[in-house]
Specification:
mainly beta, 11 strands, 126 residues, globular, 50% strand
């Protein structure tokens, strides 16, 4: 069973950095592609980044490419999102998500992921 808990959100000024964490209390973290999505007020939940179960392959939304880095620690069952050069438009609730084991297609789609955390708020002030 996958249970995801995010942490690390907060209020920062534009240009600063934050690192989000997502811990899975289950036993199959190392078999699952993991992703971060975000949802701003009044908007849909959008893809941010994903990382395959081995950590070898990553992909990013254009809006965060070059500023955000997704990584994982399979020994510690933890997913990370390092966010640098934050902008006010990055303000959103950030969610981590886990796919079924060995997912390899449609990794930027919400429907691919069947387990979600409760979200952590990131607010970037100008």
């Amino acid at each position: 069973q996958v249970q995801l808990v995010e942490s690390g959100g907060g209020l920062v000024q534009a240009g600063n950095s934050l690192r989000l964490s997502c811990t899975d209390s289950g036993r199959t973290f190392d078999l699952r592609t993991m992703a971060w999505f975000r949802q701003a007020p009044g908007k849909e939940r959008d893809f941010v980044a994903h990382i395959t179960w081995t950590g070898r392959n990553t992909n990013y939304a254009d809006a965060v490419k070059g500023r955000f880095t997704i990584s994982r620690d399979n020994a510690g069952n933890t997913l990370y999102l390092q966010m640098n050069s934050l902008k006010p438009e990055d303000t959103a609730v950030y969610y981590c998500a886990a796919s079924p084991p060995y997912a390899t297609v449609d990794l930027a789609k919400r429907r691919t992921y069947n387990s979600w955390g409760q979200g952590t708020q990131v607010t970037v002030s100008s």
